[in-house]
């Protein structure tokens, strides 16, 4: 019997025609351990680690008995066999066989295939599959567990990239209905991403979809007002620029200014006195010099920020002063991480403070 384990937007198991939701588990401890084993699938986990996580402070004999009982409940509930979920000596292993499919594995496989630059037709198929698979955060029941945060953030970043790629695909095919739905989904996740708003507004305006462009602009205005700032452009001016200028008139010329360190410090001092908390300072520090790539990286970072923001850099760091409310900081950090990822710079090579 085939088993499908869904991890996005709520953990579910589908075995044959039977759906097993959170409320169907005979033990919430078993359900919790099952989610952790999904996260650590194909790894050898010491039983002591599981004792500490799920039966902290319990005498080892009782913890071992509880672990065996809980694994039995997991197998009975999901249909997973003793060959797929077992204890050998001091190690516990969940090694799904070919009959067990996990949606996160499918998503990863499709995303890596898409990154290898497939044909346009194959790329479209992969994007649509990923769009269907991702229905919400990974293992959302463990929203505050530290062990899952990095994986969850990775999937969320990948899904955002899928949405942007799918949006551009639909635009290229003049499929404005689906493009509008996809960009709404993206902006629900990234409500302060002005550059994507402006790109979408430009695309819809150029295609004559003025009402949709206006809806997006009104949505952007509302979001920005919530954090105390205004859009860079008035909607009527956007329409004029879109009609007059080819290419991407809503982004060109509206990027952070790159300055030397002394000038940056002077501006920072003045802004501190004048604005209080009306700005955010981001410091990207590298573990070692990246002399060769720094100038290229700074040129890629500058368009992520608004006209009036400033950037300075050294051989091993970049600092950005962005004029925005503190609530936007996570969005700005996410943009930086995306650019670093595109340049092949791994997370363990830098910190953002």
Structure keywords:
five-stranded mixed β-sheet; Alpha-Beta Plaits; single chain; 353 residues; Arc Repressor Mutant, subunit A; 3 domains; Serine Threonine Protein Phosphatase 5, Tetratricopeptide repeat; alpha+beta; 12 strands
Question: Please, could you describe this protein's structure?
Answer:
The protein has 353 residues and is of the alpha+beta class. It folds into 3 domains: 3-98, Winged helix-like DNA-binding domain superfamily/Winged helix DNA-binding domain (Arc Repressor Mutant, subunit A, Orthogonal Bundle), CATH 1.10.10; 104-133 and 146-244, Serine Threonine Protein Phosphatase 5, Tetratricopeptide repeat, CATH 1.25.40; 257-352, Reverse transcriptase/Diguanylate cyclase domain (Alpha-Beta Plaits, 2-Layer Sandwich). It is 53% helix and 13% strand. The strands form 3 sheets. It has a 5-stranded mixed β-sheet, with helices on both faces. Strand 2 (12-15) and strand 3 (18-20) form a beta hairpin. Helix 8 packs antiparallel against helix 9 and helix 8 packs across helix 10 (235-244). Residues 245-253 have low confidence and may be disordered.
Individual helix count: 13
Order of helices and strands: EEEHEHHEEEHHHHHHHEHEHEEHE
The rounded distance between the terminal residues' Cα atoms is 50 Å
Tell me, what is the CATH class of the largest domain?
Mainly Alpha
Indicate the topology.
Layout: E1 3-6, E2 12-15, E3 18-20, H1 28-39, E4 44-46, H2 47-54, H3 60-78, E5 85-88, E6 91-94, E7 100-102, H4 103-115, H5 120-133, H6 146-172, H7 176-189, H8 194-206, H9 210-226, H10 235-244, E8 257-258, H11 261-275, E9 280-286, H12 291-301, E10 310-313, E11 317-322, H13 329-342, E12 350-352
Parallel strand pairs: 1-7, 8-10
Antiparallel strand pairs: 1-2, 2-3, 4-6, 5-6, 9-11, 9-12, 10-11
Helix pairs in contact: 1-3, 2-3, 4-5, 5-6, 6-7, 7-8, 8-9, 8-10
């Amino acid at each position: 019997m085939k088993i499908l384990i869904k991890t996005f937007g709520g953990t579910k198991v589908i075995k044959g025609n039977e759906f097993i939701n959170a409320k169907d588990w005979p033990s919430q401890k078993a359900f919790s351990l099952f989610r952790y084993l999904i996260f650590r699938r194909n790894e050898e986990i010491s039983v002591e680690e599981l004792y500490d996580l799920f039966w902290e402070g319990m005498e080892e004999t009782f913890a071992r008995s509880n672990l065996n009982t809980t694994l039995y409940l997991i197998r009975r509930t999901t249909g997973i066999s003793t060959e797929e979920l077992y204890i050998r000596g001091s190690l516990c292993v969940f090694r799904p066989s070919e009959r067990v499919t996990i949606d996160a594995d499918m998503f990863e496989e499709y995303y890596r295939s898409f990154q290898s630059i497939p044909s346009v037709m194959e790329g479209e198929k992969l994007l649509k599959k990923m769009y269907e698979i991702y229905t919400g955060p990974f293992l959302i029941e463990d929203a505050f567990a530290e062990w899952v945060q990095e994986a969850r953030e990775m999937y969320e970043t990948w899904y955002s990239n899928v949405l942007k790629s799918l949006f551009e695909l639909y635009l290229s095919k003049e499929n404005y209905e689906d493009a509008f739905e996809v960009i709404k989904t993206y902006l629900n996740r990234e409500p302060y991403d002005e550059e994507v708003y402006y790109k979408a507004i430009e695309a819809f305006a150029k295609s004559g979809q003025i009402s949709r462009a206006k809806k997006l602009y009104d949505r952007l205005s509302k979001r920005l007002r919530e954090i105390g700032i205004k859009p860079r452009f008035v909607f009527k001016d956007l329409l004029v620029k879109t009609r007059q200028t080819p290419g991407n008139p809503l982004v060109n010329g509206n990027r952070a200014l790159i300055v030397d360190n002394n000038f940056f410090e002077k501006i920072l001092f003045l802004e501190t006195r004048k604005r209080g908390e009306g700005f955010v300072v981001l410091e990207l520090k590298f573990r070692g010099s990246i002399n060769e790539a720094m100038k290229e990286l700074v040129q890629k970072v500058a368009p992520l920020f608004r006209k009036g923001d400033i950037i300075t850099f050294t051989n091993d760091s970049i600092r950005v002063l962005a004029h925005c409310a503190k609530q936007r900081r996570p969005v700005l950090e996410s943009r930086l991480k995306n650019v670093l990822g595109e340049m092949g710079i791994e997370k363990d090579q830098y910190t953002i403070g």
